[in-house]
Amino acid sequence: xxxxxxxxxxxxxxxxxxxxxxxxxxxxxxxxxxxxxxxxxxxxxxxxxxxxxxxxxxxxxxxxxxxxxxxxxxxxxxxxxxxxxxxxxxxxxxxxxxxxxxxxxxxxxxxxxxxxxxxxxxxxxxxxxxxxxxxxxxxxxxxxxxxxxxxxxxxxxxxxxxxxxxxxxxxxxxxxxxxxxxxxxxxxxxxxxxxxxxxxxxxxxxxxxxxxxxxxxxxxxxxxxxxxxxxxxxxxxxxxxxxxxxxxxxxxxxxxxxxxxxxxxxxxxxxxxxxxxxxxxxxxxxxxxxxxxxxxxxxxxxxxxxxxxxxxxxxxxxxxxxxxxxxxxxxxxxxxxxxxxxxxxxxxx
Amino acid sequence: xxxxxxxxxxxxxxxxxxxxxxxxxxxxxxxxxxxxxxxxxxxxxxxxxxxxxxxxxxxxxxxxxxxxxxxxxxxxxxxxxxxxxxxxxxxxxxxxxxxxxxxxxxxxxxxxxxxxxxxxxxxxxxxxxxxxxxxxxxxxxxxxxxxxxxxxxxxxxxxxxxxxxxxxxxxxxxxxxxxxxxxxxxxxxxxxxxxxxxxxxxxxxxxxxxxxxxxxxxxxxxxxxxxxxxxxxxxxxxxxxxxxxxxxxxxxxxxxxxxxxxxxxxxxxxxxxxxxxxxxxxxxxxxxxxxxxxxxxxxxxxxxxxxxxxxxxxxxxxxxxxxxxxxxxxxxxxxxxxxxxxxxxxxxx
Lengths: 349, 349
Known about the structure:
2 copies of one chain form a homodimer.
Chain A (H helix, E strand, L loop, with lengths): L11 H14 L9 E3 L6 E3 L5 E10 L11 H17 L4 E11 L5 H18 L2 E9 L4 E11 L15 E5 L4 H18 L11 H8 L6 H9 L5 E5 L3 H12 L2 E5 L7 H10 L3 H7 L5 E6 L4 H4 L5 E8 L5 E4 L5 E3 L12
Parallel strand pairs in A: 4-5, 9-12
Antiparallel strand pairs in A: 1-2, 3-6, 4-6, 7-10, 7-11, 8-10, 9-11, 12-13
């Protein structure tokens, strides 16, 4: 389906580790004053400031987190950066630097690595991020990527997971379930392709779903929006494993319960249509689909007027006392206990 | 040889990702004032200070960087931290925090992960390091570890790779080649074990070599020693790939050449004996063995009196003009061009 048609193959062994590092880093430039020393020494050096440093890290493994038969390498590079930036934005911080460690088996030629780094570079340019270091090595099987993102925030701006209070409103950005359904569409096309490689897929009805799966964007804009609205969240988390799983984290760490409303969950029309087609429950997909990389946060109830009607934000419920548990109120008015049935990486193997 | 005799096996899938994270992090405590928020949110938060932040990252993959048939998991955890701290110390900085990302296939039970983290914890306690985050996931094959280390330094104390000047002395800490030979001994024992599992290995003559391979120590002490001696290096690097490879980095980045002397290379008697036994050239092993995790640095020639005779330090040569190249002067007085024949991870696959 999505195959590398480029016949040119440069062996990585030929180039060597240092050659490869030089080759892939020469296209990256430094844009933050705080990046004093990037790639090329034992460690990178960041300038001190009166702000606080925020650090997050993620590991992506071929066959577990991505499938290169439908994930083009450039998209993988872009997405891998987004996954990490999303964590930094979920602290209400500004992301400034990343380190990228890469392991590849000898089935990958240089041209594949170039594609991957083209995606990383595009993400760095778009999100104003400096690549400051990493490690490059061989793997015995497949590709894996480990990215660490570093950000900055004023101490008073940082938002953690443990500050939600009863009566706080629960707010989400964007919409949910599309990335998960995008994956289902791509998986289906992969099966069709196996049976008939000549088949031309018609993906017109799934463009948004596929884009959300292959090229997610991290919500860099929300910190600014919240400042404009003069709202400071009491807690915040990025939605990588589905709303249920993230609410579970917020409620556990804040020692509270919550009530969310099925009819308030923001869904794109393509999500609703695809759920019908795949015979899936759209609420389950929105709550447990994962990979949306939207933000979920709580705000004091008196911020209601500032939040409501904003096209970027949806109020989906409110925080309750801890003994009330985590509840979903269905369209029919029924109370159902939420379960953290987020995507569990350790159960995939 | 070194096998887990513990019959207890707790499946990781049973525990789930969040259960596993809670389980392995509860034994770690925070010891730095600068660690404001460690594990448990989207990102860790470090306090601002007037110092500069130093960041380094390394990726270790089973079958490429380690072999669990003779590397006990606790040692692996310890060593993985050392590899990263060594990079921070090579900046003349103090290491303060690490993030640890781990991927494991389902062949590993919880008890194996506990062993690994016991080693990481021992390293953290011994070296005064806070574990502040990470990622835990499944792999399709084997184990891999990605560690990022974060340190602090005053701007004026930082030492890079690009400051070496002609006539500067080249100084190394400790001795060389032992870790490489330790690996050869362990590899040989593994082969013996395959043929006769009842064989009891006699490793008495190789204790230092094996310790250097399985439980290396990073040179945390050198920054303090240099302060005591009132010496500031003009350049510094940690020796992970062998002296030749590191000199190649220093000379390339500093735009200089160098001359080192075969008879000045510090070798432990066990290294000399094992080289005879394995019919290896001890100079080659010292120059290209790798995994010593000692420091190599350059100092102005007027620091000679402060360095000479110090039991931790050996002067092995001096920096020259770039057009002189990188030269080894043999015991017989012959000049041989050095080659960066360090361990190349990308050629292993």
